[in-house]
Structure formats: structure tokens, C-alpha cells
Amino acid sequence: MQLHRRSVEVEPGESVSLSVALPAAWPAPRTLVVLAHGAGNDMRQPLLVFLQERLPAHRVAVATFNFLYTEQGRRAPDRGPRLEACYRAVLAALRGDAALRPERLIIGGKSMGGRIASHLAAEGEAAAPAGASAAIVARGEAGWLHGLLFLGYPLHPAGKPERLRTAHLPLIEQPMLFLSGSRDRLCEMELLRRTLESLQAPRRLHLIDEGDHSFRVPKSTGRDQAQVFEEILQVVVSWLAGLSPASSRRRSKGRGR
Fold first, then answer.
1. Among 59, 156, 187, 224, which residue's Cβ finds the most Cβ atoms within 10 Å?
2. Got the DSSP string for 131-198?
């Protein structure tokens, strides 16, 4: 694995840290997974670090980054538009890097980071980059979105299931993988299942038994954090292997798993 660190300018005079882990061998189609952190963490969040260290062994590159508020040492997250602008700036930098040239792009993140990624997809971030040739567009290899990875999607605020964060999800056409803990206080399972049933895009839900919002499980399960993270890794690797360029360019009419 090769780890590259750089900064990305989001606004004049304001930049964020970006870390990209490349596999030793990166065969076509080059898959890049971009993961944003949750509200109470930064790019060093343990699950993001684990995936960035382990996915390259499966020939997948992984990028993580800070939002502006964490880069600047502030605790309170920025408002949605500013978070989205930061994520877009990072994606633009990755797509424009001639040394990377990713062909399949997966975006997502932990909790809030995944939610911001979902808004980008719903708002048209999947559009082909300017200047992409007709042949590249036809093959779906211009480095635009091929899927979304949600590590604990915050379906609603804790204790407030009536305040669903789902209105934009039907606008997403790319395949989605939802990893969720069965005891997640920010994601009531029955509400999540109903939400997924209402979507047209391919989607998959994988439950971490007894996991909370951070995928911590009680000692009584006999499992430790490393085992839970390994389960998440294997699910992500399996899902990525099943993606195809074609599935990201049209809205599937099939039901998700």
C-alpha cells in the first residue's frame, strides 16, 4: 500500500487534509472509495482508518479527508451547504489528479459523512465530468459515481424517529450499501427497512448484530471491535466486487436485498 497525503483548497485560504491509500497493484477498472467522517470525529476515525489500511489489499484505493470545521479545530459541524462544498472540492481534486484517474468512484462515509455524500448523489454529482469523450461515457469509466457506501446512515436524530432524513434518497440512482448496527439509536431498523423498500435503485442492507451507531457490540456477544470491523470489510469487498459500470448509469427496477 502507498499512502499519499496532500491538502485540498475548498475556499480561498481554506484547505483540508486528504489522504489516499493506493494498492500495490491497481487493475482496471480502477476503483476509488472516498469516505468522509462523522460529526464527532475526523479522518482518523477508527473504522475509516481500518478500511483505508485494509481495502488496498483487495485492489481498491481509499481516500479520506477532513471537513473544514475539523481541519480548523472546531467541534460543531458546518451547515449542510458548506459540508457539501467541501466534499465536492475533494472529489474535484481526486478526479482531476492525472496520477489517479479513477474509473469507478464510490462515495460515502461514517454517519454524517455518508449523509452528505447521499445529498451530492441526489443533486447530480453523478454527472460525467466535462470533456469526457462519448466512448468513455458509454463505458461508464470517466470517474463519476458508481455507488454509495453508508457506514451507519443517520436516518433520524437520536430519539426523534419522526424527523427522517430520507426525502432525497429516491433521487439517487446508484447502487447503495447500508451497514447498520441493530442497536443504532440514530437508525430505527423498521424505518430503515421501509425506506429501502421504497427506493428504486439497487440497495443492500447488512446488519451488525447488537452493534450501536459506532458498531460497538456488548462484551456478552463474545466479539471484539476487530472482529466487527473485519465483518464490515468483507461485506464491503463483496459488494464492490458485484458492482458493474452499467448498474450505475440506469435506475434499476429490481428490489434490493
1. 187
2. T--HHHHHHT-SS-EEEEEEES---S-TT-TTS---TTGGG--S-EEEEEETT-TTS-HHHHHHHHHT
Q: Supply the pTM of this predicted model.
A: 0.89
Rounded to the nearest 5 degrees, what angle is found at the Cα of 112, between the Cα atoms of 108 and 113? 30
The set of residues, in sequence order, having a beta carbon less than 8 Å from that of 151 and lying 6+ positions away, is 35, 47, 108, 109, 110, 111, 114, 179, 215, 232
Mean pLDDT by 10 residues, the chain (257 residues): 95 97 93 96 97 98 98 96 96 90 93 97 66 39 78 94 94 96 95 95 97 96 96 98 61 36
Return d(Cα 197, Cα 87) in angstroms, integer.
28
Domain 2-248 sits in CATH at 3.40.50.1820
Taking alpha carbons only, the member of 151, 221, 206, 162 closest to residue 188 is 162
